[in-house]
Amino acid sequence: MYISYCLFLSTGLLQTNKVYQTPTAILKGPEDKVQLTCRHTDSSYYMILWYQQSAQNTALKLIGYVSNTSPTVEDSFKGRFNVSGDAAANKMAYLHFPKLTEAEDSAVYFCAASEAHQAYFGGGTRLTVLVTEPTVKVLAPSAKECKDRNNKKKKTLVCVATRFYPDHVTVFWQVNNVNRTEGAGTDNKALWDKDSLYSITSRLRVPAKDWQNPDNRFTCIVSFYNGNGYINVKHTISGDLQGNKTMNTVCVYEKKEI
């Protein structure tokens, strides 16, 4: 396997005006396709390499390279990236993102043109995968829910957070602006849907009398990481004095013998 000798200066990568990289920055969303272009002007360069530099790890990771017209992608990047081009005759190569699906795709990408002993880098392309904030909705309890396994009258509120990216979320509940953990339960992880966005569900079980008090306010809060920090997205509903009786559903309770 070909190994290039990349030179680093105290100020960063060894760059030259003989290597040009476009675009310099790009904003895209999940599912989008992206193509980066690298070209050089030196006829002695027959290889163009592509590197990724993530925010979490500033070390350069080799994605793949084009040697003359022969493309190679490193095993750890196969399926996420493709490379193509003619590094020698046309002096140009491309890095393809067939589909942006991972938060790790947000990074800086460098190309480098090389001959036998050293590589000269382009200016880099900063790719940002756009975040999508969740839509949060609290669903009222079902009128069919009468008692729990301990024969206590309970009602279950359901919070559904949908269409968000990435999946860095925490869900918690409040009743009348006070955090409530008793009776709360959230999915172990967010689900990846067909639109390449995430969804998650949480539930809160409360005594039926609490739900039937219209003065009570039940709030689901989704703490979401938007790339810069955490924000809270919330939805609140009030208790139902009728206890969902308007749905014409009758609860039948078994009488226990003592």
UniProtKB/TrEMBL annotation:
Domain Ig-like: 17-132, 134-238
Taxonomic placement: Eukaryota, Metazoa, Chordata, Craniata, Vertebrata
Protein keywords: Immunoglobulin domain
Organism in which the protein naturally occurs: Salmo trutta
Protein name per Swiss-Prot or TrEMBL: Ig-like domain-containing protein
Source organism, top-level taxon: Eukaryota
Pfam families, per the entry: C1-set, V-set
